[in-house]
Amino acid sequence: MHRQVEPIPLQQVKISDPFWNHYLELIRKEVLPYQWRALNDLIPDAAKSHAIANLQIAGGQAEGEFHGFVFQDSDVYKWLEAVGYSLATHPDPGLEALADQVVEIIAKAQQPDGYINSYFTIAKPQERWTNLRDCHELYCAGHFFEAAAAYYQATGKAKVLEIACKFADYLVEVFGTNPGQIPGYPGHEEVELALIKLYQVTNDERYLKLSKFFIDQRGQEPHYFAVEAEKRGEIRRHAPPWSDHSYHQAHKPVREHTSAEGHAVRAMYLYAGVADIAYYTQDRELLETCLKVWDNITRRRMYITGGIGSSAHAEAFSFDYDLPNERAYNETCASIGLFFFAHRMLKLAQDSKFADVMELALYNGALSGISLDGKRFFYVNPLEVWPEACEKRNDHRHVKPTRQPWFGCACCPPNIARLLASLAGYIYTKVDDSELFTHLYIGGTAELTLKGQRLAITQESGFPWDGTVKLILNTASDLDFTLALRIPAWCQNPSITVNGEPIDIKSGFEHGYVKIQRTWSNNDRVELEFPMQVALITANPKVRANRGKVALTRGPLVYCLEEADNGDNLHNLIINPDGRFEVKYKQPLMNKITIITAEGRRELDNWGDVLYKANTEPDTEPVTLTFIPYYSWANRETGEMLVWVRKQ
Amino acid sequence: MHRQVEPIPLQQVKISDPFWNHYLELIRKEVLPYQWRALNDLIPDAAKSHAIANLQIAGGQAEGEFHGFVFQDSDVYKWLEAVGYSLATHPDPGLEALADQVVEIIAKAQQPDGYINSYFTIAKPQERWTNLRDCHELYCAGHFFEAAAAYYQATGKAKVLEIACKFADYLVEVFGTNPGQIPGYPGHEEVELALIKLYQVTNDERYLKLSKFFIDQRGQEPHYFAVEAEKRGEIRRHAPPWSDHSYHQAHKPVREHTSAEGHAVRAMYLYAGVADIAYYTQDRELLETCLKVWDNITRRRMYITGGIGSSAHAEAFSFDYDLPNERAYNETCASIGLFFFAHRMLKLAQDSKFADVMELALYNGALSGISLDGKRFFYVNPLEVWPEACEKRNDHRHVKPTRQPWFGCACCPPNIARLLASLAGYIYTKVDDSELFTHLYIGGTAELTLKGQRLAITQESGFPWDGTVKLILNTASDLDFTLALRIPAWCQNPSITVNGEPIDIKSGFEHGYVKIQRTWSNNDRVELEFPMQVALITANPKVRANRGKVALTRGPLVYCLEEADNGDNLHNLIINPDGRFEVKYKQPLMNKITIITAEGRRELDNWGDVLYKANTEPDTEPVTLTFIPYYSWANRETGEMLVWVRKQ
Fold it and tell me: I need a surface site. Which of A470, B39, B294, B334 has the fewest CB within 10 A?
């Protein structure tokens, strides 16, 4: 039987949380204005974006040539989408006025048939849809659809949705297997999940069908990318490593996928869309595909930070258990994509394994992409950094030891902005109008209706610093429903009380959630205690990079050593797994964070100029190791960083 | 005071040694004939060489176009050089007839002015000497000079030397700082050391001076490579990483060099030439340069195998202590070059640190380049191999887990052939006609004159399997001289007897050699015992790749684990440093080799499909580790290999 699963949308959830307020303010007050200036080429030190200018030129509002990547438009859309999310909970007339300007610019850039893409409109008007594999037209369309849905939902202004639907209607005509239609699909997935958002807003099933069409066509023979390449007369002197189309997840039909291959962000966007289609069309085969790929990622190809994509080359998944720490790619956008995929999986199955990974990717692999002041970013998120190697070794060239203001290919900064701005929409899910799931412990208030009755929940949360959570229900009259509370996988000894009375966690435990079914009254109080112990994590014996090493976690956070606290040559530090760990709050260091100190030893660098010695043990001295949360590294001076620490 | 240092040349030394006989026979019976067929494009599975054909076309003996690299000629010269060495000790009329054919081909390819280079003669006759940086004309010239010297010394046939001198005389005219001369130097060093070989054969000081000229010009301002590039109108869209000329060791004048930079083979060939010039011209400044660079390499940039060049990109040195095991480049030719450099340093200073590295590079980093049957080769010699990563990771693309029959750029196979064929020339050195140094313990007979008197030494050696060495002197009448015997750095407790009487090693110990000065009589017998203990080697604490790991050596050999003996997942094997080691001879496995077994544990791969676990210790089982000599790996089925083993 198909369950009706409805995430409580961010319009109904207001975050008020000691940890996240800081970021949400940063997004509103720093990131979005900063990105606006970046999109308008107003930041002196940063690479020029040209993104707004391109759309203005395409709309006849300015003269000039197209500049930037073929997907440059998408930066504008991601910004607009983030603005939509931000306005949904924090009205800001100034920001809204800017966004309205952008909508006007997009409206003018739209061609009479509905098509929008500044690159093709300006530079290659005759070549529309001739290279779906590389040219990102559908990718940009997707980001616009997401933006349109978000901005419409936030403001109720119809114009942006009209523009989007006109574009989508045009796509419905262009793509398909009927004569004259294009039987292709995008090289960079995104439009699949975006069409579903448009469907959610409009209820127009044609958008759902088009999304499913793109998914079903992918990887079929004759291979569309080969056919279109031949039509273009393409000659490739050197076949790229993805000549089997796995780079684009098109190496075989999606229903036959069993592992995550190719470009990690593309893969995540694809499977997020696939999961959506599986949900809306009750397609068990696609659900099975999603589960297989999910397992492959989380059991064999994911860093402990929720980072994915262990190969810089092609920004891609490599193979099972290949997780080098210092050469990881781990694009910020890939962790964000994993978060999106996880959230869609939660609609298919209310299993905490999905929410656990959402939490993991959020607090670690994604959040590490933005500095504490919201002004600088990481595109790549390795688990070990040796600055000299980043500078001097070609195989570390992709790793930056310092955060950068903006990027030539600026996908990550706006992506993290839209994720954080929409965070409120990922906390709760209502199932079959009778169960309310809490996936993330983030303080704030949610308002919803359940069984026709208004219900409000106020959450207070100490996450990620401590595991004390309080939920207070506000309801006009008593209401019988099930409250399902995620027990984080990292928590060994949770306890829950309702109005002070302990709950038997085991009895109501199902797929990682404690289900409390009862008649709830106004002001009922649920108190959760998830003790956050320092945990020493070991990696699967097949993971070569982490032999003899452990990583420290506490609650949802992965920790790391940074040179600023521990000196250089972090590889010479050895943790004592049986030693004492102290958890301390530290205010003056960056923002308030929890640090962990541990007992250990340092192998002394007292050899002098000798490279090898026989039958000797390195001298050591006792030392206190200081760990900081992984996401907070690289906010002080440039230096080494290390997640996996030697234990002997 | 300048000491007269004369290596006993290979014409006077006949190797007869249980270990090396096998290789010398392989070179004669397999490698040289195989390479001859390869040079003539007669090997079906291998990439075509075109090398002989190119020279025939250049000489008007055939029609066609040039094929291959600009340095393709050098493969022919390296073959001819090896043939010369082989004929010096093992006459072979068939081989000599082939070599004479080659000399004729070269003679015809020589232009009227003396110039020889098939690429420029065939394809770019107008562009001679317009791109010294990239086009390898002087590199090829150098290899021809080395070949000519070797073949002339072996056969006494003057023709090849006449061709070489005509070419060298032409170079003497072309290069210099006088008007109309070219003030440049080669991008790939080689001609420097080769001109010295020509000088050694001819006593023509102009060749010595030209060599010194090339060295002194290198890296001076205005920078010759920049000047010639501008003259060519060169436009480079992407500046290569060596735009500071360090790739070519031309980032500053040679006398200012303090570290090994850039392409490792080029660097070694350069410094071998620099050391020669320092010796012949008594140039203390160049000697200091060599010592600084030597120390930088051997104390900070050399793998335990004598491999050098830790970066695949540019086949280059990277930076101090950056020695990744699985991504090492360690070109076979670079270890051979290090051997050459070390041998030249021994002329400047009779210090065993140079001979120790000669021995190390010979038995490990160089010998690993050739299979036990002499038919397949490694270009790249990493210290850790994970075949799946070699196949699937772009940053391992240079690492081949299986030996290859020949290479498109076939520098390594002929290089190892010429090294092994000339090995007899590296064993002994006579100093000031009063001291005879033994650098390498290789069985055979040397005949020389000392103080005008004929002396023969017969050496029997158990190297590299055991450290028992016997020297028997043969002299017509008593002779007063010093016998200097290297005490290998790896040997902790050597003992020496003369005619059964123990020698006090400490009293005669100087710079790593025991000097026995006495009046030697016919049939005097020196017996040396260098006990070969299994040693556990630790790397300097600054070497990140080797933390918590040890490598096993025994005598001159570095050992490794191979999957064929130990199963896969070698990273899960842990050696017990305090356990018992057993040394065994093993005949049926490949050739007769010494293997080492050690006590250890295996971390069990019993996790199932879980990637991370909290607060757990991996299960282990006791296991016997089997180590084989590093050079002998990859002679069975394809699999993993590991030098640095976890000790905990």
Answer: A470
